[in-house]
Each structure stands twice: as structure tokens, then as C-alpha cells.
TrEMBL record:
This is VOC family protein. It holds the Pfam family Glyoxalase. It comes from the Bacteria. Residues 5-130 form the Glyoxalase/fosfomycin resistance/dioxygenase domain.
Length: 137
């Protein structure tokens, strides 16, 4: 899989409705995972969207989620740029450069869904998400 760069939007409980709207606008295939799907089936946030991805016939990719439990949602900061793929060395290199001089909110490490994932804000204030599919660490 090639590394991809795309916008990642966050919502406060309306990610499903927003992504269904964007699907109506752009067409394509929408994949959705809830917090309940990934290990919290009985929790109060089980139906909230942990991750969704819309891939359109024209090549657009849009990702979104509801903010995780305990995190604040603020308009104007409800986006990130996502880097994802399976090239461990390439993505770790991007992570090192993006996080240098910035701040790390989620360390780049193995997550409950199996990927290595991290979140940082670069020194210019742009939020980034890096997801390494199938990484071993």
C-alpha cells in the first residue's frame, strides 16, 4: 500500500451523519467503526464513531471520527492531516520530523486496533495523525 495523505475531521457525536452526508455529496464507499466495534461494546460511547473513511470514485479520501471520550471538541480545531500506510520506516521518518519542535498528544505506539498510531501538532500548529498499518512495534 502506498502512503496516503488526506484530511481527518473530528466531530462531537455527529461523525456518522456528517460522513453519510459527504457520501451523498461525493459518492463512494463509506467504512465505519464504532468504539463498540473495537473493544468497548457496552460502554456509553459504543455507538460513537472511532474511525470512518470515505473513498470516492474520483480518488478523494476523507476520514473522520467522534472525539474520544474525555477529549474536548472545539470548532476550528476539528481537523488533522492524516498520513497512513504500511511503510514503517517512511512513516516513522515523517513522524520524527513532524513532531520535532512541536507537541505529541498520542505517542507513536501500538494501539488496540493493531496499528502503530500517534498524534502530534507540528511547530506551526498543524495537527497530524500517523498510522502505520501492520507495524510490529
Amino acid at each position: 500500500m502506498a502512503t496516503r495523505l488526506n484530511p481527518y475531521l473530528s466531530f462531537d457525536g455527529t461523525a456518522r451523519q456528517a460522513m453519510e452526508f459527504y457520501k451523498d455529496v461525493f459518492g463512494g464507499t463509506l467504512a465505519v467503526s464504532t468504539y463498540g466495534d473495537v473493544g468497548q461494546p457496552d460502554g456509553p460511547d459504543a455507538e460513537r464513531i472511532m474511525h470512518s473513511m470515505l473513498e470516492t470514485p474520483t480518488g478523494f479520501t476523507l476520514m473522520a471520527s467522534d472525539v474520544p471520550p474525555g477529549m474536548e471538541h472545539a470548532r476550528g480545531t476539528n481537523f488533522a492531516v492524516s498520513l497512513s500506510g504500511d511503510d514503517d520506516a517512511e512513516l516513522r521518518g515523517y513522524w520524527e520530523k513532524l513532531s520535532a519542535g512541536g507537541s505529541v498528544s498520542v505517542p507513536l505506539e501500538k494501539q488496540m486496533w493493531g496499528d502503530v498510531f500517534g498524534m502530534c501538532t507540528d511547530r506551526f500548529g498543524i495537527p497530524w495523525m500517523v498510522d502505520i498499518t501492520g507495524a510490529q512495534s
